[in-house]
Task: inverse folding
């Protein structure tokens, strides 16, 4: 199997500003993190808040200004799905505009082809053509997340990073969105890096899980092994908590 | 809550009606006035308001209402272009400083700060005296430049706030250029805040033009404007023509009041 992402010995820290009475502090957020992600694989990244999972995502997407180590991805346009569907869509624009913008920037399709792709993608995520003229404020949380997924997938990425994409949604909507993510993965042969704190959600989507704590990877194994034979005490704690 | 909402739409509606009314009369004045604004009539000089002359006539027998319609046109013309040029440049400066930050931010905002450090009317008077080219367009350029900092500040705040939103991160991920993000992704979201600022700016421009022409540094002597007429009228305030100053001043008040209510209404409508 081909690798789509290689993360090699990545460390990152940030310095808190020193004030009149405080000295500068160096806070380590990632310590020597290494893992690979293969084509078509769904990799879960689990850990409590502050464990460094979102920092990894930001580093991969190029949003982290400074880190040590090496990150190589073999996907031209890795995309991101945010946790909060209320802030991920431009409130001043229509769904049609939001979905057309990445295609316009990509620049290889004419107007008719762009429209064809938008309608196709809307149908893929379970929305109809009519949604093109709607604004995000007119949509429910679940519908917004569907639009976010459509916007991420419209440029046909190979790698999608999803940062807690269902944790802001109701349980019933969660299940629908997870099912949609599974369908899209099969249809487009996507690789997911799926960030979550919820083992149950990870279980429904991922083949393999990396457990992080305080910036360090404490366990990296297949989903079944993680659930059946958790090695690290922290992993055991997470698995117990999800039962 | 309900009361407050009621009041908000009240501001907006009255402001809109007043503004549309004033602007319509002024626009009509550019094509048609009841009398020729500069026609002198010795038989009808210094008359008080009447049906024939609703604002009376001046010491040369000219119809004041016709002159106000004509002069307010100049004032409005100047205010319009001051706001158009000043807000366009100001929003651009705010976008660059707010979105890019760093050295661009520091340099441009320092320039804005130094402009703001002087009282703007004083600065405008000095520049106009030095240029010594009285006329509409000189006033427009000088005021437009002086108006840039206030628009830049409002726009900068909005760009700083909006650029941190998740949908802007996604636009960057899609490969949108900074210019594209500033113009297509952020500007429409900044607009609800910029619109009241533009309306207030219009207000300030009317006042600035009136003040400068009143002080004799604005439009040239041959052009009528509200400020110039007011300056003219004050000579006769106690010697027989009190309605001249009152009518011209009243026109300025109504114009300003319309814009103020409109701006206030716009500002409260977004809350």
Result:
């Amino acid at each position: 199997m081909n690798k789509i992402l290689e993360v090699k010995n990545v460390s990152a820290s940030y310095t808190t500003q020193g004030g009149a009475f405080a000295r500068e502090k160096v806070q380590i957020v990632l310590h020597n993190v290494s893992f690979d992600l293969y084509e078509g694989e769904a990799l879960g990244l689990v850990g409590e808040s502050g464990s460094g999972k979102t920092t990894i995502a930001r580093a991969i997407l190029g949003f982290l200004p400074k880190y040590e180590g090496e990150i190589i991805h073999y996907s031209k346009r890795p995309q991101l799905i945010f946790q909060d569907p209320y802030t991920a869509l431009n409130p001043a624009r229509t769904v049609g505009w939001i979905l057309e913008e990445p295609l316009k920037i990509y620049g290889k399709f004419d107007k008719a082809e762009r429209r064809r792709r938008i309608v196709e993608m809307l149908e893929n995520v379970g929305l109809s053509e009519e949604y093109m003229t709607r604004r995000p404020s007119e949509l429910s949380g679940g519908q917004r997340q569907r639009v976010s997924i459509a916007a991420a997938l419209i440029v046909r990425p190979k790698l999608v990073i999803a940062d807690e994409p269902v944790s802001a949604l109701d349980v019933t909507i969660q299940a629908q969105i997870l099912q949609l993510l599974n369908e899209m993965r099969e249809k487009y042969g996507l690789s997911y890096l799926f960030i979550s704190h919820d083992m149950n959600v990870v279980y429904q989507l991922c083949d393999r899980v990396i457990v992080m704590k305080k910036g360090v990877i404490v366990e990296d194994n297949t989903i079944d092994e993680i659930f059946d034979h958790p090695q690290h005490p922290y992993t055991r704690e997470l698995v117990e908590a999800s039962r | 809550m309900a009361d407050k909402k009621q009041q908000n739409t009240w501001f907006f509606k009255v402001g809109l009606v007043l503004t549309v009314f004033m602007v319509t009369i002024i626009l009509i004045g550019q094509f048609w006035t009841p009398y020729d604004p500069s026609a002198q009539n010795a038989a009808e000089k210094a008359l008080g308001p009447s049906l024939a002359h609703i604002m009376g006539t001046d010491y040369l027998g000219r119809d004041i209402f016709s002159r106000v319609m004509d002069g307010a046109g100049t004032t409005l013309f100047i205010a319009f272009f001051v706001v158009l040029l000043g807000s366009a440049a100001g929003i651009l400066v705010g976008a660059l400083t707010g979105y890019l930050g760093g050295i661009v931010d520091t340099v441009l905002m320092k320039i804005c700060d130094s402009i703001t450090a002087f009282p703007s009317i004083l600065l405008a008077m000095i520049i106009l005296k030095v240029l010594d080219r009285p006329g509409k367009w000189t006033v427009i350029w000088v005021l437009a430049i002086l108006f840039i900092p206030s628009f830049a500040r409002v726009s900068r705040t909005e760009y700083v706030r909006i650029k941190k939103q998740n949908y802007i991160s996604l636009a960057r991920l899609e490969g949108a250029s900074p210019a594209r993000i500033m113009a297509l992704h952020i500007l429409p979201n900044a607009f609800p805040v910029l619109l009241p600022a533009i309306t207030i700016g219009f207000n300030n421009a009317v006042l600035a033009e009136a003040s400068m022409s009143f002080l004799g540094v604005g439009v040239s002597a041959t052009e009528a404007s509200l400020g110039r007429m007011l300056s003219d009228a004050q000579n006769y305030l106690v010697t027989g023509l009190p309605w001249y100053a009152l009518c011209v001043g009243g026109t300025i008040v109504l114009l300003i009041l319309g814009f103020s209510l409109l701006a206030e209404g716009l500002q409260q409508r977004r809350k």
